[in-house]
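Query structure, 318 tokens:
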């Protein structure tokens, strides 16, 4: 399994395959399980439908690793329009953004250096946080691979420290990283909202637990820390054992169901999403949309290689 996971993560960076998939009809047929559609309107329609089922949403306009300032500004514009549409339609939805989509350079063939690109990402994401705050909404900064953890947390903390954006931005912590315990403590001291997840990227053993059991253990430990804090956090997992343990821990400490939310991905464990809502828990679903769906889609296959069989079965049945 770890081999297959690595293979899919490696494929997620494959440019020719990405070009082929994103532009072929075959790709469009395969992606619909995990992607809400190609346009903002598609995603807003899905958000409306999820809201009707009592499920909150976070919208992700797919795209990462932009290569110019113009592209970063264009990506941010999509999110500004989304914030307006969410308000106009009265949706229970916020937005999730990647800093490499807002201009942050990882490496590779870009026109900017790291410092310059970090400034661009901070200003584009900062403007979005300002807009979100004015609209009474919220901006979640997704977490990418561990080379960007420190820069991402620095940007989020500076955005949070500004009066115009205070409280309007939160971040993601990956339980797989050794550093996460210390990062969580720092973010809690700052009063920043956290989404806890296991981590979707292939990381070296110098920075992340290689064994899944250790990642699960770290998730449980960190989730308890979050539950005990007075801040509203999101626990992003489809892992039933962890969800049950979380429910039991919250109940044993008298922590109310309104004090935190479970978060899951569009198209994954819809049965579990519905059951949690039925039992009075808050659930938010991550709804990705857009034409640049390939890296996101490949990470979903990496998490569960059996998805390939599932997709193939549905493909041939259709
Ligand atoms: C709302 C949300 C936001 C996220 N944001 C980030 C982020 O910013 N950065 C980041 O690195 N990662 C992010 N992730 C991904 C996360 O790190 C994991 O890779 C992913 O959630 C799978 O881990 P798991 O906790 O569900 O548990 P696992 O132990 O991987 O899976 C538990 C069970 O969940 C189901 N399942 C899990 N994944 C899938 C799938 N792809 N398809 C079908 N079933 C599946 C299966 O039933 C599986 O047995 C996010 C996840 C969620 C839910």
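Result returned for the query:
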């Amino acid at each position: 399994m770890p081999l297959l996971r690595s293979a899919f993560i490696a494929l997620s960076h494959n440019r020719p395959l990405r070009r082929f998939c994103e532009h072929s009809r075959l790709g469009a047929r395969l992606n619909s399980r995990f992607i809400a559609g190609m346009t903002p309107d598609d995603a807003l329609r899905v958000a409306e439908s999820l809201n009707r089922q009592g499920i909150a949403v976070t919208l992700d306009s797919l795209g990462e690793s932009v290569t110019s300032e113009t592209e970063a500004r264009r990506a941010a514009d999509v999110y500004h329009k989304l914030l307006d549409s969410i308000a106009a339609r009265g949706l229970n939805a916020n937005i999730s953004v990647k800093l490499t989509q807002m201009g942050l350079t990882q490496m590779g063939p870009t026109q900017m250096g790291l410092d310059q690109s970090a400034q661009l990402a901070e200003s584009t994401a900062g403007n979005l946080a300002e807009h979100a705050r004015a609209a009474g909404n919220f901006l979640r900064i997704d977490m990418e691979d561990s080379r960007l953890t420190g820069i991402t947390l620095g940007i989020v903390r500076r955005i949070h420290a500004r009066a115009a954006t205070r409280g309007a931005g939160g971040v993601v912590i990956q339980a797989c990283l050794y550093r996460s315990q210390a990062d969580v403590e720092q973010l809690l001291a700052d009063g920043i909202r956290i989404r806890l997840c296991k981590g979707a990227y292939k990381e070296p053993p110098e920075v992340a637990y290689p064994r899944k059991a250790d990642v699960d253990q770290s998730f449980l430990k960190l989730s308890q820390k979050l539950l005990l804090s007075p801040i509203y956090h999101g626990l992003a997992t489809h892992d039933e054992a962890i969800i049950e343990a979380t429910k039991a821990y919250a109940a044993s400490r008298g922590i109310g169901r309104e004090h935190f939310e479970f978060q899951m991905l569009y198209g994954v464990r819809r049965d579990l999403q519905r059951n949690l809502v039925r039992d009075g828990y808050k659930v938010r679903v991550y709804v990705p949309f857009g034409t640049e769906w390939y890296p996101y889609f490949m990470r979903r296959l990496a998490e569960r290689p059996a998805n390939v069989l599932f997709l193939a079965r549905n493909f041939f049945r259709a």
